[in-house]
């Protein structure tokens, strides 16, 4: 249980009085000597304590039981004393004892007693709310929230609404949280002073529960009233990959304030999350011009250029990042996070060297990285370098040295080794390995999806379809599975209407994902709709110009009579990915000379 929610409390006044009384006995031997030497002091007025003898004794017993390790007895004694005295400091002390003893239910009992005993205490209601969130009791949330909104000032209520969703970021059932709080938030939204905060709070909870459309409706209402509202713009960025309309107000805000570098960087990251790599790279490139001394945009630009297979652009960006990182170290020594960032840059520079097939340079960058325990990404890169040089057995052994005690560690190891085999086009070995993985972890949708992709490579299409449908059954929002199944049907010219429905479903879950946009273009092509196919494929290629999308766009352009443009797209694709099989196959089948 996080201690930050319950900071250590000072001893209660009565416990302190006990300690002082005992201390007086220990110091009595020195009292006469001190009195003889000290100058006379004016007498202070006597302030009699309101504590009676039974209360004094009860608190003394409670603190003594606590010191002797009898936490349960101390809790009961002090809680009874708190109820008798209605002393807030004592209530806090009891809550603290329960929290430190990891007794969440008992902490909640004490907090509720505090709230009931001192109903006007904001802190009592706040503590109750925090404990209800930590103990996953959404059905009881409405009361404390309503009380806090009623008792707090306008600014306190607005703060509550801003911070409330953060209490539930790890809630196992976000829908129950939304159901519990939605009526209270909608009531609060009728108050003009709280409307904006209540709408944004509900929008966050709607998004957490997986309801992107109502989350966007609420966010849009705020932005219509205040287009530059920062929290609403942040929500719009989070919604971009599921609600395409959410991008427009962000772009409008950047047009109004081109120097809003924080928003631009957040927008660039949202583009990258949506796999719109070309646009993301353009935004980060602009940031490197406008903020050349800031390290972060250089790192982001380098990693994006690497993904776009532009090693000649990725390398200088990453080297500049390393230089700016060293310059930003105030004492000449990098912080722990700075050292980690430097290692990640070295890892990316190793990949840059790999793209150039400079194995020696790639290994040299990896050799700079020092880690205390084996790390999957580092082990994978080292293994791939070994395999590229014909040492596959050594490469696989390196992956096997990764820890595999827990299911998550085992999953990571399976993923790393299967990725290694896929990169080497060892399809049968990868399929066999993923079969072992899904046998060990049968409920892992991602492993099952990867196995389906290997089945497709081996032309085991019935198995692939069965595995993809099982993936969807396990993870109904696995948009990659919908897309893969729809694309596979479209590519084989089978059940095209069903294929399109599957891809539409994938797009509803990830509207701007270039791979899915490419699939939509391809199924439209198979349905004979060339104009629609070109529109979709051009959009996908603009976001992520990889070889397979280039192959599809080129074919559609060729069939539409735009042969020179088709040759240009294919040439661009082969420049990025020499030897791309999809482009070569399309040109050969269409008898399209370079």
UniProtKB/TrEMBL annotation:
<feature type="signal peptide">
    <location>
        <begin position="1"/>
        <end position="31"/>
    </location>
</feature>
<dbReference type="InterPro" id="IPR011990">
    <property type="entry name" value="TPR-like_helical_dom_sf"/>
</dbReference>
<keyword id="KW-0802">TPR repeat</keyword>
<keyword id="KW-0677">Repeat</keyword>
<dbReference type="Pfam" id="PF13432">
    <property type="entry name" value="TPR_16"/>
</dbReference>
<protein>
    <submittedName>
        <fullName>Tetratricopeptide repeat protein</fullName>
    </submittedName>
</protein>
<keyword id="KW-0732">Signal</keyword>
<dbReference type="InterPro" id="IPR019734">
    <property type="entry name" value="TPR_rpt"/>
</dbReference>
<dbReference type="InterPro" id="IPR052346">
    <property type="entry name" value="O-mannosyl-transferase_TMTC"/>
</dbReference>
């Amino acid at each position: 249980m996080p201690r930050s929610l319950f900071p250590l409390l000072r001893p209660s006044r009565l416990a302190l009085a006990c300690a002082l009384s005992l201390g007086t006995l220990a110091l009595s031997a020195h009292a006469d000597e001190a009195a003889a030497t000290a100058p006379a002091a004016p007498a202070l007025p006597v302030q009699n304590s309101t504590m009676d003898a039974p209360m004094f004794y009860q608190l003394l017993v409670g603190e003594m039981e606590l010191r002797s390790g009898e936490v349960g007895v101390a809790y009961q004694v002090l809680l009874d004393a708190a109820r008798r005295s209605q002393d807030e400091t004592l209530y806090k002390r009891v809550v603290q004892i329960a929290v430190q003893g990891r007794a969440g239910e008992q902490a909640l009992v004490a907090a509720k007693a505090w709230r009931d005993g001192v109903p006007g205490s904001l802190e009592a209601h706040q503590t109750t709310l925090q404990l209800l969130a930590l103990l996953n009791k959404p059905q009881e949330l409405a009361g404390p929230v309503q009380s806090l909104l009623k008792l707090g000032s306008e600014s306190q209520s607005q703060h509550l609404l801003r911070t409330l969703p953060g209490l539930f970021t790890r809630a196992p059932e976000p829908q129950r949280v939304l159901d519990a709080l939605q009526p209270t938030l909608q009531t609060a939204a009728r108050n003009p002073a709280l409307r904006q905060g209540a709408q944004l709070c509900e929008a966050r909870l709607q998004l957490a529960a997986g309801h992107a459309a109502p989350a966007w409706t609420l966010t849009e209402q705020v932005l219509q009233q205040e287009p530059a509202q920062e929290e609403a713009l942040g929500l719009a960025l989070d919604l971009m990959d599921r609600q395409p309309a959410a991008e427009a107000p962000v772009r409008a805000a950047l047009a109004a304030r081109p120097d809003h570098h924080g928003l631009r960087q957040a927008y660039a990251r949202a583009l990258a999350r949506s796999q719109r790599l070309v646009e993301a790279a353009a935004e980060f490139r602009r940031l490197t011009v406008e903020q050349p001394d800031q390290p972060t945009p250089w790192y982001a630009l380098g990693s994006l250029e690497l993904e776009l297979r532009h090693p000649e652009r990725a390398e200088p960006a990453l080297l500049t990042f390393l230089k700016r990182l060293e310059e930003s170290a105030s004492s000449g020594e990098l912080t722990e996070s700075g050292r980690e960032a430097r290692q990640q840059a070295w890892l990316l520079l190793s990949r840059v060297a790999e793209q150039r097939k400079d194995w020696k340079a790639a290994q040299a960058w990896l050799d700079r990285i020092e880690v205390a325990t084996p790390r999957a990404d580092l082990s994978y890169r080292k293994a791939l370098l070994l395999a590229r040089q014909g040492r596959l057995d050594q490469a696989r052994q390196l992956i096997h040295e990764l820890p595999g005690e827990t299911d998550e560690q085992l999953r990571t190891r399976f993923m790393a080794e299967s990725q290694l085999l896929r990169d080497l086009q060892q399809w049968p070995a990868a399929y066999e390995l993923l079969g072992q993985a899904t046998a060990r972890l049968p409920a892992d949708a991602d492993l099952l999806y990867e196995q389906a992709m290997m089945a497709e490579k081996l032309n085991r299409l019935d198995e692939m379809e069965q595995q993809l449908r099982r993936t969807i059954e396990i993870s109904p929002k696995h948009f990659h599975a919908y897309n893969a199944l729809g694309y596979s049907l479209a590519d084989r010219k089978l059940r095209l209407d069903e294929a399109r429905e599957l891809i539409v479903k994938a797009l509803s879950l990830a509207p701007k994902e270039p791979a899915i946009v490419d699939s939509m273009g391809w199924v439209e092509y198979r349905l004979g709709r060339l104009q629609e196919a070109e529109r979709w494929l051009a959009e996908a290629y603009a976001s992520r110009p990889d070889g397979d999308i280039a192959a599809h766009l080129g074919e559609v352009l060729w069939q539409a009579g735009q042969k020179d443009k088709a040759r240009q797209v294919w040439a661009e694709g082969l420049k990025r990915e020499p030897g791309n099989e999809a482009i070569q196959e399309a040109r050969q089948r269409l008898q399209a000379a370079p």
